[in-house]
Amino acid sequence: MMGSRRWAGACLAALVLALAGCASAPKPPADAVSGPWSGRLALQVQDRPSESFSAGFELKGSALAGELQLFSPIGGTLAVLDWQPGRARLQANSRTREFASVDALMTELSGAAIPVRALFDWLRGIATPVAGWQADLSQLAHGRIAAKRLDPLPEADLRVVLER
């Protein structure tokens, strides 16, 4: 009887150790790993309310070639941004504007250089560092990302809430 208890106890201990060895940090939602992503995003630029905005979004593709659609609260399309190497385009208000890069386009659109390349990584749960930015991915499993631009001034806060 005592030998079978020890054996059962040893098996239980081995099982617990094996499971503990398999434990890992919470993973982002499945859709956050592969995209496309949709939800709400907000950018607040300190001391510049005209450069701050909030919109619904759908993001497809990659940092190299992709598309970002921005929507009003009632679902109307505010803007469509698309990019590929050497070219980026903004379609808004029945006008199309061309830019040399997605970074130049984002700066023109928002007044703040949003790190699009890193944003794709952040959505996948990869904490890619960007000079001047601090990203908080601790709530990604709950569909939330926060990033703050500290340099260059003015400071800017980027918040993303993914749809479930």
- Tell me the span between the first and last alpha carbons: 52 Å
Cα-atom Rg, whole angstroms? Answer: 22 Å
Helix tally equals 4
The helix/strand order is: HHEEEEEEHHEEE
CATH topology: outer membrane lipoprotein receptor (LolB), chain A
Mean pLDDT: 79
CATH architecture: Clam
* Coarse structural class: alpha+beta
What would you call the shape?
globular
According to CATH, what is the class? Mainly Beta
The CATH superfamily is known as Lipoprotein localisation LolA/LolB/LppX
What composes the largest sheet? 9 strands, antiparallel
Helix content: 25-40%
Strand order within the widest sheet? 6-5-4-3-2-1-9-8-7
Give the percentage of residues in beta strands.
35-45%
Low-confidence stretches: 1-32
Number of strands: 9
Number of domains: 1
Tags for this model:
outer membrane lipoprotein receptor (LolB), chain A; 26% helix; cell outer membrane; lipoprotein; 164 residues; alpha+beta; disordered N terminus; 4 helices; 9 strands; nine-stranded antiparallel β-sheet
